[in-house]
Specification:
Layout (H helix, E strand, L loop, with lengths): L3 H13 L2 H8 L3 H15 L4 E4 L2 E4 L1 H29 L3 E7 L1 H18 L3 E7 L13 E5 L8 E9 L1 E6 H7 L13 E4 L7 H7 L7 E5 L2 H9 L4 E5 H4 L5 E3 L9 E8 H4 L2 H17 L3 E2 L10
Parallel strand pairs: 3-4, 3-5, 8-9, 8-10
Antiparallel strand pairs: 1-2, 5-12, 6-12, 6-13, 7-10, 7-11
């Protein structure tokens, strides 16, 4: 029968006493005001105003609706005020998913730094080597290591590439010698990633430099890989940010640029509409760019040691 904009115009005319004064107060055309009042009366099948040379005055029917219209007006103002408060409010839970090694070494410290500034925000950590569905609402934010983000409704921001290198343990080298270049891997036992990660480009490139009979232990996570290498099982891939700090592991050679892996900060459109999610995403991206974390910044020379 009517929409809120017509009620707003009705109130302005009732208060100002004419369509001309109401049009000035609302900053719309006088003709539009007159036309919308007529449309409102037609929709309600009521005469709301008496028109004469002195202007517009409320009929008994118009007076009867005035208080109801003012209630609608207050409800509209309340909605606007609440929306503004929500847009300023950071409080609530942010559910974050990422591979376990990245969650441990990078994301958890960033969460703590963010909570120092915004203690009203709480985090739920969902470590996972496989991708969870953001579109289904299984998490709010994902840190994804993938060649490309798939999903038309996802909002993605590329982060500095993850640098990987081949590592071996001090115990392993004592028994098997040291591979000095990728071609040497064909003569060594290899710890590779299993099916959950094997499809990624950097894993395929690494495996292409060895042979299937040299792969002695597939792993399903970076922590699992780290444990196998440290145990002396063979040579394996680790993100340099997790491999370099371990005193009993040694890089075989500088990180080959072919092993660099794209890394993305991803959210669904629904989650991204929340201020706390947008705020944390901006904070995390800036922190990662500033701190480095053993990553290769965009535009940085891709060869050589990190």
């Amino acid at each position: 029968m009517y929409d809120w904009s017509d009620i707003r115009i009705f109130l302005a005319v009732a208060r100002e006493g004419s369509t001309l004064a109401a049009s000035r107060q609302l900053n719309i055309n006088n003709t539009t005001v007159s036309r919308r009042i007529q449309a409102l009366e037609h929709g309600l099948q009521l005469t709301l105003f008496m028109r004469d040379t002195r202007g517009y005055s409320l009929t008994p029917q118009g007076k009867a609706l005035l208080a109801r219209a003012e209630t609608l007006e207050q409800a509209s103002l309340d909605i606007a005020a609440e929306a503004e408060r929500l847009n300023r409010d950071l409080s609530g839970v942010i559910r974050v998913t990422a591979p376990e090694a990245l969650m441990t070494h990078i994301i958890s410290p960033i969460m703590m730094a963010y909570r120092t500034l915004h203690p009203e925000v709480r985090f739920e950590n969902l470590s996972a080597e496989t991708q969870v569905s953001l579109e289904r609402g299984d998490a709010d934010i994902a840190f994804r290591t993938t060649d490309a983000v798939v999903g038309d409704t996802l909002i993605a921001r590329r982060l500095p590439d993850i640098t990987w290198s081949a590592y071996y343990s001090t115990d392993y080298i004592a028994s098997h010698g040291m591979p000095e270049k990728m071609e040497d891997l064909r003569n060594h036992a290899i710890v590779s990633f299993g099916k959950e990660i094997a499809h990624l480009g950097f894993v395929k490139w690494f495996v292409s430099h060895t042979s299937e009979d040299r792969i002695v232990a597939p792993c399903n996570s970076v922590p699992n890989m780290s444990g196998m290498i440290r145990a002396g099982v063979g040579v394996g891939l680790l993100w340099t940010g997790s491999g370099d700090p371990l005193p009993d592991l040694v890089r075989c050679f500088p990180p080959p640029p072919e092993l660099d892996t794209p890394w993305w900060l991803v959210a669904s459109q629904e989650a991204h509409s929340l201020l706390r999610v947008r705020s944390f995403m901006d904070f995390a991206a800036e922190k990662i760019d500033d701190e480095g974390y053993g990553l290769r910044k965009k535009g940085e020379e891709r060869g050589g040691l990190q």
